[in-house]
Design a protein that fits this description.
Number of strands of chain A: 2
Order of helices and strands of chain A: HHHHEEHHHHHHH
Shape of chain C: globular
Number of helices of chain A: 11
Helix content of chain C: 40-55%
Distance between the termini of chain C: 72 Å
Radius of gyration of chain C: 22 Å
Largest sheet of chain C: 9 strands, mixed
Number of helices of chain C: 13
Number of strands of chain C: 15
Chains: A mainly alpha (about 290), B mainly alpha (about 325), C alpha/beta (about 400)
Oligomer: heterotrimer
Strand order of the largest sheet of chain A: 1-2
Order of helices and strands of chain C: HEHEEHEHHEEHEHEHEHEEHHHEEEEH
Chain lengths: ~290, ~325, ~400
């Protein structure tokens, strides 16, 4: 019984890690730039497809991950400079619709290039087998996700709390006007952050392909999940997105185990109730709290 | 708002600039289509249904500034209500339609009351959550909704006992046209009334409106409920016309598409819904023959271009072209 | 001068064929070419084109007239049944087809029942397998299978071959319900015990949870039912990833292990037992003709599966019906022509049930083995001429 409970927990945490890696970029850019970006899932998707293509053609798995991350970051840079920048001053509606437009374009291109069938990332053999963790066997893949997610969370936390860039970022999120007033190059900060966010999304899409399967409808299908993590966690809050991702992963997985049929709508109902109770999210950054 | 700006749809109607001919044209086309359409009649009915759906969103989104991606919740609610009513209570279409509109309006009232105090991204997320809850619930409540298989066995009695709903679609088309006309008149009256004008103010500056004593929340709730009722009506039309309800009426995709349609056509124009729905469905129908996903690409590009360059949607195209040409002429003459 | 001559020649050709003037019979084919079920459309179309390469694109009608058999293909996009219904309406109203065919998904097939009645158009179901479909309208005829034929066969075989406890994981749509119901019924009737049953969402690709629950129940085997393609591939991957194979649990399946999908699986699937009405590598002469033609026309893409054989036999029956009744007969006449007909199909002998208009055929139990370096289904048992059990359990009320 205990081993079963532990399995459910590990499943939930590994799922949450994927959601975190993908969504952390979104929460920072939404909190920082105040832009609603519904196209964020597309970067995860592109990262996944690049990794899939490379691993299917014999490229080393970790190299493929690196290239996928870089590709997503580059595309993020391109997008930010061309179509996202004009959105800073336009209203919510414009942001929502333009980013939906990006999703459509990316979805159509992916279908054209890779076909409509779900696309596989070829993980190395040792990641597709169950691993003996003492009291039972458990998929190595999931342990890998928890490891990678944990490392990334740690690095990001050190970066945001401990580095100059992190301090500038936090300042700009908490009070953008003041940040500009003290001479910070806010637009460079925006661009750099956007790139890091999309690169991370690409990585998340690539390693998470075993849970969030890659298909052309990826960006549309999962955007609600990423938005839930961001908004429930509190826009701009790194800690909030981590907590929300873990909570979402664990609740969703537990729900599937015990109330399988009801799980999806109970989850969204819970999100609804939570947002009514705490509209700013559970751990919003200071200026919004 | 001092003098109404003739450039906006509201202003145009207010200053009587949209002449009688301008108003009559879309309806004349719709009636002519009935006689000329041949095998495309049911396509036309689909266009009419989406026009009504987009019109409902125009009231909430365009005029009142309520940024919602959850309009499909009302469309789907109305569709399933009409379908379930036809199966379990009575197959009379008029009664079913009225009941569907009433329960959807109630649903809109309740959800609006719960969420309209929030704004921005939180509000957006709440609307997304509502649609998602409804979709997932309908998906697993297969005994009630048929789930993925859809609601089977929806039989609609002939309209007024005389006009049958067949696959050839004549009854459905005229029925949809009449319903659309009735709602259009209601929408037009609402937006040109003082209430409608106050919505314009609320959209632009809610704080100021509160400062002058406008009951902002109640006005928003009222328009949200009206918008929900209209969307529910469109859903009921869909059920009656196709004699079928599938899960897609509640999908996030449907919710997104109706917003896309409205923006493409032009928000705050009322007729923008007409332009947007027609163009979108035509593009989809035509490009489906080229390749099944080509239309997504085209629509995506159109959307990006519209947001960046054509804020008033396609209805604004004339004005934008004129200003571009004007600038070119000025540059030439220098 | 040359133009005049060729014009006269053309006139002459028309005049000669004028007495046996060409009529057209249009068939609208609705299947998915994109989305999760994208293979079906292509498989149907390839088989139809291969059939027409051998048997010609036209048939001679009862009065000797030449009937051109034209196919109009439409993509249902793996979308909901409303899409299929809309396409059917378009095909009947705009393209003026006289018959509809295809339908890999049961919801799609079911959605066109009232169109068939209103437009008086026969529907030839080439794959959709929910048992009740053919009862939806007198215009339905099916050349593929019914799920109860499969579920009953493998349930009985499993109980009779040393499997005592089974955990079933089936897809939550009408064919999945049929599979679950009939497996449970025949397995228990033969003495087996069902230790658990789960239903998964139709487009589910993440089966970790279900695998875990199955593992906890300690069955001898897991019986799966998933639509062929990505759901089944993900299912089998999860099956070995989560350690069920290591725990010695067997896997029982159905169409998920068709030859078309085997290249996507690893050697982990060796030993899997599946039930089907068509074993692709069988050595019947009719099968050889079909397979050879498909490879000749489509190369690597010419893999045959149940879609191919469903479409192939459908065309054979349609040609028979056209020969009997010509291009402009009433829809029900074509259905009558197909009732009771027997065919030597590439799958084995088949018959169209004259009362139910449904398929009666052999059902095969196969095991996956490695033959010549490739994964292959090998027949280990045959149950001859099975009538749909659901129809037997649910006779038409007179």
């Amino acid at each position: 019984m205990l081993s079963f409970a532990l399995t459910v927990l590990l499943d939930g945490i590994s799922y949450g890690m994927v959601l975190f890696i993908i969504s952390v970029g979104l929460t920072v850019t939404m909190g920082l730039m105040r832009v609603i970006n519904l196209a964020h899932g597309s970067f995860a998707m592109i990262g996944g497809y690049v990794a899939g293509y490379l691993t299917q053609h014999g490229v080393d798995f970790f190299l493929a991950l690196l290239l996928a991350t870089v590709a997503a970051g580059l595309l993020g840079a391109l997008c930010e400079v061309t179509v996202i920048r004009p959105l800073y001053r336009k209203g919510e509606l414009a942001q929502v619709l333009l980013t939906i437009g990006i999703v459509f374009v990316v979805t159509a291109l992916i279908t054209e290039i890779f076909g409509a069938f779900p696309y596989r990332v070829e993980f190395p053999v040792y990641l597709t087998q169950p691993l003996d963790i003492g009291f039972r066997t458990y998929p190595a893949y999931r342990l890998f996700l928890i490891l990678v997610g944990g490392i990334i969370a740690l690095i990001l936390w050190l970066l945001i709390e401990g580095s100059l860039y992190g301090a500038k970022l936090r300042a700009a999120v908490d009070n953008p006007r003041m940040a500009r007033a003290v001479g910070m190059n806010v637009s460079l900060l925006f661009t750099a952050t956007f790139i890091v966010g999309t690169a991370l999304a690409g990585l998340g899409g690539a390693i998470g392909a075993g849970i969030l399967s890659l298909e052309p409808s990826y960006a549309l299908k999962y955007v609600v999940l990423f938005l839930v993590v961001v908004i429930v966690g509190g826009e701009g809050s790194f800690k909030g997105s981590f907590v929300a991702a873990m909570a979402l992963g664990i609740i969703d997985t537990t729900g599937k185990y015990f109330v399988a049929a009801a799980a999806p709508y109970l989850l969204y109902a819970a999100v609804f109730a939570l947002l009514l109770w705490r509209p700013q999210g559970i751990l919003p950054p200071k200026s919004l709290a | 708002m001092a003098t109404p700006n003739p450039a906006t749809g509201l202003g145009a109607i207010a200053t009587g600039q949209l002449s009688v001919v301008g108003h009559a044209l879309p309806w004349a086309i719709a009636v002519a289509f009935f006689f000329l359409a041949g095998g495309y009649l049911s396509f036309g009915t689909q266009v009419l249904i989406w026009i009504l759906f987009a019109l409902s969103l125009d009231l909430a989104l365009g005029y009142a500034g309520i940024v919602t991606l959850g309009q499909a919740a009302f469309f789907g609610f109305g569709a399933y209500a009409a379908g379930l009513f036809a199966i379990h209570v009575s197959s009379d279409p008029i009664l079913g339609h009225l009941i569907a509109v009433a329960v959807t309006a109630l649903f809109g009232l309740v959800t609006g009351a719960l969420i309209l105090h929030t704004t921005g991204v939180t509000f957006l997320m709440l609307t997304l959550a509502i649609v998602s809850v409804m979709f997932e619930y309908a998906n697993q409540a297969t005994k009630l909704t048929g789930g993925d298989d859809g609601l089977q066995g929806v039989n609609i009695a002939p309209l007024f006992g005389l006009f049958e709903f067949t696959m050839f679609g004549q009854t459905a088309y005229l029925y949809a046209l009449v319903v659309l006309f009735i709602w259009f008149v209601i929408a037009w009256r609402v937006v040109s009334s003082p209430f409608g004008r106050s919505l314009d103010g609320i959209r632009q500056n809610p704080r100021r409106m509160r400062a002058i004593g406008t009951p902002v929340w109640w006005r928003l709730l009222a328009i949200y409920t009206l918008s929900a009722a209209m969307a529910g009506s469109a859903g009921a039309l869909s059920t009656h016309a196709t004699r079928f309800v599938g899960l897609s009426v509640l999908s996030l995709f449907t919710s997104g598409i109706v917003a896309v349609i409205l923006i493409l056509g032009g928000i705050r124009r009322l007729y923008g819904a007409f332009v947007g729905a027609t163009i979108y469905l035509l593009v989809q129908d035509w490009s489906a023959k080229v390749s099944p996903y080509f239309w997504e690409f085209i629509v995506g590009l159109m959307l990006i271009a519209t947001v960046l360059f054509l804020e008033g949607g396609l209805m604004d195209l004339g004005r934008v072209m004129r200003s571009v040409l004007g600038r070119i002429r000025k540059a030439d003459s220098k | 001068m040359r133009k005049l001559l060729s014009g006269i020649c053309a006139l002459g050709v028309v005049a000669m064929t004028g007495s046996a003037s060409a009529e057209t019979f249009k068939i609208g084919l609705i299947a998915s070419y994109t989305g999760a079920f994208a293979t079906w459309g292509t498989q149907f179309q390839n088989a139809i084109e291969a059939f027409q390469s051998i048997h010609g694109k036209s048939v001679k009608g009862p009065k000797g007239e030449i009937i051109d058999v034209q196919l109009v293909y439409r993509d249902a996009g793996s979308a909901g049944p409303d899409k299929a219904k809309q396409l059917a309406e378009e095909l009947v109203l705009r393209e003026k087809v006289s018959m509809l065919g295809g339908f890999e998904l049961s919801p799609h097939a079911m959605s066109v029942a009232d169109i068939s009645k209103q437009a008086k158009v026969p529907i030839v179901v080439m794959n959709a397998a929910t048992a009740s479909i053919t009862r939806g309208s007198p215009y339905y005829v099916r050349t593929s299978l019914t799920i109860p034929q499969w579920g009953q066969a493998i349930g009985k075989w499993a109980a009779e071959n040393g499997i005592k406890k089974v955990y079933t994981i089936t897809s939550d749509y009408a064919p999945g319900h049929d599979a679950e119901a009939y497996f449970h019924k025949s397995f228990k009737a033969a003495g087996g015990e069902i230790v658990g049953a789960d239903r998964t969402a139709l487009r589910e690709t993440n089966f970790a949870v279900y695998m875990e629950k199955a593992l906890q129940a300690k069955p001898d085997a897991v019986y799966m039912f998933q639509p062929g393609g990505s759901p089944s591939i993900s299912f089998v991957k999860a099956f070995s990833e989560r350690g069920l194979k290591q725990a010695g649990i067997k896997l029982l399946g159905n169409g998920e292990f068709a030859e078309l999908y085997l290249p996507h699986f690893s050697d982990d699937v060796i030993g899997t037992i599946s039930v089907n009405h068509y074993t692709e590598t069988n050595t019947r002469p009719e099968n050889k003709i079909m397979r050879d033609q498909l490879i000749k026309q489509f190369g690597e893409k010419g893999v045959t599966d149940i879609a191919s054989v469903g479409a192939w036999d459908a065309m054979a029956l349609i040609y028979i019906a056209l020969r009997e009744h010509g291009a402009s007969a009433d829809g029900l006449k074509y259905i009558d022509a197909m009732k009771g007909k027997t065919l030597a199909s590439p799958r084995g002998p088949i018959m169209i049930d004259p009362e139910e208009r449904d398929i009666i055929q052999n059902i095969y139990i196969r095991r996956i083995e490695k033959v010549g370096g490739k994964l292959q289904n090998v027949d280990i048992a045959t149950i001859p001429m099975v009538k749909d059990p659901w129809k037997i359990d649910n006779p038409v009320k007179r």
